[in-house]
Amino acid sequence: MQIEVSDEAVELVDRVAAIDIAKASGMVCVRLPHPAVPGRRTQEVFAVAADSGAILELGERLTGYGVQQVVMEATGAYWRPFFYLLEAAGLSCVLVNARDVKNVPGRPKTDKLDAVWLAKLAERGMLRASFVPPKPVRQLRDLTRTARVLTQERTRHKQRVEKVLEDAQIKLSTVASDIFGVSGRAMLDALCAGQRDPQILAALARGRMLIKQPALVKALTGCFEEHHAFLIRTLLDTIDHLSGQIDALGERIEQLLAKIEPPAPSGPDQRPGTGPGGGGLLPLAARLDEIPGIGPSTARVILAEVGPDIRVFPTAGHLVSWAKLSPRTIQSGAKSTHGPTGKGNPWLRGALGEAAAAAARTDTFLGARYRRLVKRRGHMKALVAVARSILVIVWQLINDPAARYHDLGADHYQRHTDPERKTRDLVRQLHALGHQVTLAPAPA
Fold first, then answer.
1. How confident is the model over 266-273, as a mean pLDDT?
2. Cβ distance 290 to 299 under 8 Å?
3. Considering the entire predicted model, what is its pTM?
């Protein structure tokens, strides 16, 4: 076996700083070249408070040292002040996952040793940086994530309303598909206002609920008391308040999307007219909305989590791997298996999971892909595969500003099936079941 020895130096970064971050402080390790002895390194470890003034002073100190890279761990939300302020000071900051750098059995665990270990890994280029989007996209993330949390909270309050109705023997949800629609909300308001007559309550039905009035009379007959009215009134007021906040967040998200301009295309192979054309990210969100399963809110979440600068992910495979939607390969000797996908961005995975579940019910290529995979791989794996396909489509649409989604059709797999191969497979299956098969051409 021939081994090639590289003449490249071991230290890839001459001047590096690492920060082990806690809630109220951070342990900083600075490693620099020795001023007198070539090939040697000097090391300085000191603590710094986590307030803005101390971090700004740290930025000036590191700038004076000529630090080329500042590495820190993603510790909860405590890394944000260090990263944002040091980045604003002109330093190159790198955020890494603590799980990837501390999993060394037998190594002592102290803040000082953690900072030194992190600095040594950074100066040798052995760390994988986490994706931190620019400030406008971070603000968009805050808005979409807050809207998501408030939507989940509103759903929990709606479930509590139904629970109170069940306690009062009011079976409205068995007749109405949405008890918070126009008809259902009118009945709930009337119940809270003191109306108990099932006939009068059922007469509040509107639209398609009119034909269900006999069933509504039975469902609205119960033991609804003042106690239940107080609880439901309180929950309905909270639901209305949350709905107003969600609407306000939606308007704010639209305004921010209109302000964020996509990056200008670079390279000689770019076609003219594919650069930013006004409207910010709203045209891109509209193009993502054309994908089956993706609605306006899901398109906003995807843009907030991935960002408009897709150059961070050189290929669609990089984006899929970052989102943890591709199976992990585990090889040992001659045995090769696939492990779980892992934990990715929960906000992005949640949005893609909902989009995949919606696309699986459509008569499109994505729906056909789900139905083709669910037979042999199961429901969850088929959904992950569809979510991966959606994310690949998203990468293509963001990467090419002139591209539009074109559905391949629900019959895509049938049109690309080899008839002779399919015939051989079916004949082989019948032979395995003990049948003698004779094929004859069908009449024209």
1. 46
2. no
3. 0.83
Is residue 30 domain-resident?
Answer: yes
CA 322 vs CA 100, 186, 391: distances in Å = 14, 47, 11
Which among 148, 96, 83 has a CA at the least distance from the CA of 302? Answer: 148
Query: In sequence order, which residues have a C-beta less than 8 Å from that of residue 283 and are 6 or more positions away?
Result: 277
Expressed in angstroms, the distance from the first to the final Cα of the chain is: 65
Measured between alpha carbons, how far is residue 247 from residues 43, 141, 155 in Å? Answer: 53, 16, 15
- 235 in Cβ contact with 129 (< 8 Å): no
| Residue at 252 is within a domain | yes
User: End of a domain among 123, 152, 185?
Assistant: 123
Q: Which two tokens stand for residue 34?
A: 């020795």
Cα 176 to the center of its chain, rounded Å: 33
| Nearest by Cα to 258 from 241, 227, 281 | 281
pLDDT band for position 3 (50/70/90)? very low
Compute CA distances 434 → 62, 422, 423, 425, 439, whole Å.
Answer: 79, 19, 17, 15, 16
Residue 74 shares a structural domain with residue 118? yes
Q: Which residues pair with 29 in a beta bridge?
A: 18, 45
Q: 31 and 106, same structural domain?
A: yes
Nearest to 62 by CA among 19, 22, 125: 19
Asked if residues 265 and 274 have their Cβ atoms less than 8 Å apart, the reply is yes
pLDDT digits (tens, 9 = 90+) for 108-141: 788 888 899 899 988 888 888 889 999 999 999 9
| Integer-rounded Cα radius of gyration of the chain | 30
- Find the Cα–Cα–Cα–Cα dihedral 374, 377, 381, 387, rounded to 10°: -50
**Which segments of 194-335 does DSSP mark as H helices, in order?**
198-202, 213-219, 226-259, 282-288, 296-306, 316-322
Residues 364 and 287 in one domain: yes
Q: Are the C-beta atoms of residues 359 and 375 closer than 8 Å to each other?
A: no
Using the 8-state DSSP alphabet, how is residue 106 labeled? T
Which residue do the tokens 């907030």 mark? 304
Type of residue numbered 126 = M
